[in-house]
Amino acid sequence: MSNVFNFSAGPAMIPSEVLAQAQAEFTNWQDQHTSVMEVSHRGKLFMELASQSVQDFRKLYRIPDNYQILFLQGGARGQFAAIPMNLLKENGKALYLTSGHWSATAAKEARLFGEIDEINILEQNDELKVGKLDFSDIAEQYDYVHYCPNETISGVEIFDVPNVGDAVLVADMSSNILSREIDISKFGLIYAGAQKNLGPAGITLVIVREDLIGHARKSTPTIWNYEVQKNADSMINTPPTFAWYLCALVFKYLLSIGGLPEVQKRNQAKAELLYQYLDQSDFYRNPVAKQNRSLMNVTFTTGNDELNAKFVAEATAAGLHALKGHKVLGGMRASIYNAMPIQGVEALICFMKKFAEENR
After folding, report:
1. Domain end: 204, 233, 257, which one?
2. pLDDT at position 91, please?
3. Residue 102 assigned to a binding site
4. Does residue 172 carry a catalytic annotation?
5. pLDDT-based confidence at 90, cuts 50/70/90?
6. Which of the following is catalytic: 29, 172, 230, 324?
7. Is the preceding omega at residue 15 within 30 degrees of 0, hence cis?
8. Does the pLDDT at position 2 exceed 90?
């Protein structure tokens, strides 16, 4: 195992087993003596890979038959625009539940396409926590309700699904996709950039219920039209084939280790270990209420900007990379996505103890 652990919030770690397989197949995929990047996306072999990846992803999440899975481009930001273009009626409106930077950014983009109401569900006192999640009394007046169940920057995760009655619930799961089991049937649409838990940057997954497809406004570009992409098997243009291939390998790897029950077990163990240390430390502080602490992004600070900078520099030198917090929040952030082994968390805690002893 490498002596370097990458805590980047994205692009993030990819399972070492997947990287090893990709390396072995890099110049000779499927005995073709070419790379997967060099074959036609409409050729038999790649079409088989694409079809199998959809089946494997569907199996991981137990996705019902009345949902389509699209492999798109443009990242989550692209979906900030695509969602209102496809789901927001000409004279309709949507509700955005904001709990941090990314949900607020999604709401800002959606306002370019129609009437958007915004409710801040994040309470900021001594600690960050999510408030009311029952919107069943107002949700059905909206074409859809959007939220972000895991805010990467602040390390706030929403584990309970908002109650929106019979309204369409849309979730940006870019930073916690495939990290734990969820009931897909509670959502109308789920989207996620790949670069946290699925594979490399460049591909975006959309899980969308069938009845929501086919209602895009006339001005919607074909690249963002869900119906067009569904009918073209997500290949209205040349897809990012290497990113798709790596996602397909990740899906197979996750199935091989026991699927999401095992993934969730591992993620909970890693997060609990790090939060337990933070809770007993009088040197570091995590600002998030226990019920909303992210399993994916653990934020912490010494309370001193100069000391934080020293921590990041010395951690990097010790092989613990990308621990600097986002510029919006500062401090430190350890992103411990699916591919981070528990040994990485143990190494981080060992360093944190040493740093605290030396800098009191």
Report:
1. 257
2. 80
3. yes
4. yes
5. confident
6. 172
7. no
8. no
56 is in an annotated binding site: no
**pTM value?**
0.96
* Model confidence band, residue 149 (pLDDT cutoffs 50, 70, 90): very high
Among 29, 102, 224, 244, the one annotated catalytic? 102
Q: Is 259 exposed, middle or buried (0-12, 13-18, 19+ CB in 10 A)?
A: middle
Give the structural domain span for 322: 259-358
The domain that contains 278 carries what CATH number? 3.90.1150.10
Residues 53, 169 within the same domain: yes
Q: What are residue 128's DSSP bridge partners?
A: 124, 288
59 a catalytic residue? no
Asked if residue 42 belongs to a known ligand binding site, the reply is yes
Mean pLDDT across 120-139: 94
Average pLDDT over residues 44-57: 96
Q: How many helices (H) and strands (E) does the chain have?
A: 9, 15
Q: Is residue 12 part of a domain?
A: no
> Does 313 count as an annotated binding residue?
no
> Is 238 marked as a binding-site residue?
yes
Catalytic site residue 244? no
DSSP code for 232: T
